[in-house]
Amino acid sequence: MSRAVPQAPSPAVRRARAVLVVAGAGLVAFGGWTAWSTVPQGQWLSALTWLAGGVVVHDALLAPVAVCLGALLLPRVPPAWRAPLRGGLLAAGALAVLAVAQVAGAADRRHWSVVPQDPAVAITTAVLVIGAGVLLGVVVGVRRRRRGAAPPPSGRPGSTPPPR
Amino acid sequence: MTSSEAREAPGPHRGRPHLPVPRTDDFRSAVHDPRVVARVGALLGTAVLILFATGLVSHLHQDPVSWWAFGPSPAWAYRVTQGVHVAVGFACVPLLLAKLYAAYPRLFERPALRGWRHAVERGSVAVLVAATTFQIVTGVLNVFQVYPWRFSFVAVHYAAAWVVAGSVVVHVGVKLPTILAALRAPLAQMRADDGWGRTTGETAAPEPDGGDDRADDGATTRRGFLAAVAAATLGVVALTVGQTARPLAPLAVLAPRDPRVGPQGLPVNKTARDAGVAETAADPAWRLELRGPDGTRSLSRPDLLAMGLATAVVPIACVEGWSATATWDGVRVRDLARLVGGTDAEDVRVESLQPGGSYRESLLPAAYVAADDTLLALRLGGEDLDLDHGFPARVVAPNRPGVLQTKWVSRLTVEPAAPQGGAA
Ligand code: HEM
Known about the structure:
The complex is a heterodimer of chains A (164) and B (424).
Chain A (H helix, E strand, L loop, with lengths): L10 H28 L5 H30 L5 H29 L11 H31 L15
Helix pairs in contact in A: 3-4
Chain B lengths: L2 H5 L26 H29 L14 H27 L11 H29 L9 H32 L16 H4 L8 H26 L33 H4 L2 H5 L5 E5 L2 E5 L1 H6 L3 E8 L5 E10 H7 L7 E6 L8 E4 L1 H4 L5 E6 L2 E2 L9 E3 L12 E7 L9
Parallel strand pairs in B: 1-10
Antiparallel strand pairs in B: 1-2, 3-4, 4-7, 5-6, 5-10, 7-8, 7-9
The complex binds protoporphyrin IX containing FE.
The site of protoporphyrin IX containing FE has 29 residues of chain B, from helix 2, helix 3, helix 4 and helix 5.
């Protein structure tokens, strides 16, 4: 189905594909039937809105922001910083999801043992952890590059920015 | 996203008046590569498998079937399966973001649809992405007790679980040749054909010795990204898993719960006030009613205390993924059942003072009733139960979801054992 598959799939792969697609479709159908028969109709609109909402928010908002941020920021930093920074952005994205949940959870507690920590302190701590992780990644990356660049006499110094 | 993305910036849309819709080819970063997508996908797929299996365990505890029964041992089993469920659920947040980010260029494939097979294939990806994103986002909000929707979380989460698991299986089937090729290909290898039908700057001029600068950059970028995904995923787990793994509790800044924090050092989910029992539970006129084949009996709290208390160390393991071990003193449920003619071969129905709600009652299958550690607990950590922990009396049994450890118990009824698991 993908255009540029390197080789034509072997018979075993073809059979495995058929089994997986049919079995998977069966599981999806069971899920659909379960939703149909157990979720009251009055709840469908809300569930479908959330189902579609996540994709829309991701595809139209989060992903473009991530791509633009990467395209604008990463070329401006030394190569050794790129992978750690990309990882830091990924971790920050995950933190954003958890932070929204934590702040919302702390705003409306049913009991004081729900989100007992101060979200501001907790989220700041997590941001610092991400920062420390990025720095650690840079140190590791620079070391790797030094080691990799050392043997060839004409080796390029790893940490200079690429030619523009 | 990489240097190359910007270096080769002048895309085909330069000079267009409005925001251009990009094409798959416009994404030049070496991260957007089937080798990366397949590796992140393998992690996410494994995570979904674990979530599906552990989720079904939780479902079968609460909706027993005749052909599968859980018992009281090992005591820690549910705590582990549900703790894993929520820990892996948290880990899915960075994994999903990484997977969607790496595969994002495929959204802009042209032509958008090439015949019905392709339409079905893209439709299946749409279902996969929508259901998985939904499941992870609503799951995370739910464990923080944030419910900004108008549906029953459990019913929808259960149905969606089958859709997520099934669409992952379909997806693996559809992409199998690409996945196999991508997982076999070393990250550093250059290929003119990247499996996405693109010919990128990096891969256009393969050099057999691999000494090409750009290829080297590409391999470094891919390796770096995968390392970053691993670090972010482990990081999220490290900062949350302490809600169930007590030694890590000091690290759990991002978790919804701290297993050490609550009245009597134990977190509370439903409070007496929310349950509508604040007055009835504190009333000294409270009596425990026992019903069984030999009739009915009524016991006050002093009566129960006078029966001689057994001690059990049993965890409260919440469906929301936190858990905490506690020491309980109470009367064995089987001893209470015997007072009204029950035997170890019968189930016991537990009813609460709660006027309503889905967890007003629970059924203790015979195997649990027979266990030494299944108590009608009166004391916690050597003190009388806190009102929010179920004073005057609550059930604690090993290997049970917290929602079935009924609080503010008002009545125990001996019932003939339901087939095996004891369907309610
Ligand atoms: C993405 C794939 C996932 C699958 C396939 C899945 C599957 C399931 C299943 C089958 C159940 C049992 C539902 C029932 O009792 O009927 C369950 C329960 C649960 N899941 Fe998930 N789950 C997923 C993700 C998550 C995530 C990301 C979280 C949160 C971090 C989460 C939190 C929960 C909770 C709190 C319950 C207990 C609900 C209750 O009984 O009140 N799940 N899951």
